[in-house]
Amino acid sequence: MKRIGLALVILMLALSACVPAATPTPERIVETRVVERTVEVEKTVEVTKVIPTLTVIGPWAGAEMDQFLPVLKAAEEKLGMKIQYRIYRAEDLSQVLPPQFEAKQAPGDVIFMWEWWVRENKDHAVDLTDLWQKEANQFVLQPTTVDGRVYAVPYVLFVKPGFWYKKSFFQKHNLQPPTTWEEFLALLDKISAIPGIKKAIITGDGVGWPISDIVEHFLITFGGPELQQNLIAGKVRFTDPQVRSIFAERLVPLLGKYFSDPVEWTQAIDLWWNEEYGLFFMGNWLTGMVKDPNDLGVFTLPGARGVVGGTDWAFIPKYSENVEAAKQLIAFMISKEGMEVRAKQGGKLASRKDIPPDVYPPADRALAEALAKVEQPTVPDLDDAVGGDWQRLFWDQMKLLWVRPQALDSVLRQLDAKFPTK
What we know:
alpha/beta, disordered N terminus, Carbohydrate ABC transporter substrate-binding protein, CUT1 family, D-Maltodextrin-Binding Protein, domain 2, 5-stranded mixed sheet
């Protein structure tokens, strides 16, 4: 039995030796890979173009405004912008702009203003030198500059050529434009004798500038363009004997006798056109303010070698929110294309040399041709050139002179005493 048991043990040991040893099961490693893919999605983005809206401020109302608006309309179509126009006289702007600029604000993007005022306030104006240089050779007027930089550019030309009359009125009463001073006085007598005529000449008035224009015409005629320029420069005083003699011998004797009392100038147009007065001194913008410009005639005082000519000056305030668009607008207005649009409307003459005469309406075309015969058709405007407080004093003193001619010497002393020193 022991042998049998021992044999079994030996057999079991032998069998266990033949069975391979158990191998540990390795852990299963699961690797997760994240694959990133960029998916390009095509999107259609609608871009809305922002159309700038500009505000232009100018002095023109009524018929003058109607002549200017086609320019803005053409600019809108060409430049793809919207433009609104607001009326402000330079006299009002001189009070409105300073506090606006002090607050870094601007009531408009393009503003028409006096040249001297822009020069004195150039720190608030955009530099337009590059814009101007592209057109400079074509202009008869110079821009507003300070230290060689341009801050305002001239627009269309106005002139103050003399005394306007209705051709039909002259024909009806057998009147002729004068060629001498004596003929001028005789013409005034003839007009004064016509039934229904209140005075030979109606005096237009506003803040005083229409009267000042008449005075300047007398100074230029009897003192020459050089006297006007010397007065502006302060080289000749208003108490100078030559200046006083022009007032005392040529102008003052006509006041009261031939000139009416001052009448608001736009009302004066209607009164004159209705033939209550025979003559009317006004700038060439009158051609766009009467019912029939083809019935207009005009003459200078006999012997005049020049007439006042000037323009309105456009500048851009630094505080505009549309400076680049405003530059585009000014560039269009002073371009040949823009200037022709304005010339076609009448009432102003182009300040460019390359605008042909046939662009103008008949009355303006005749005026342009007549001015070509005058020695200096663009003598500077006295009160505009001097500017400042003296300009208002000049206006006030001329209105005083019109109603009190005996105050001549007092008037001249005031003008001399208050004239700004250079």
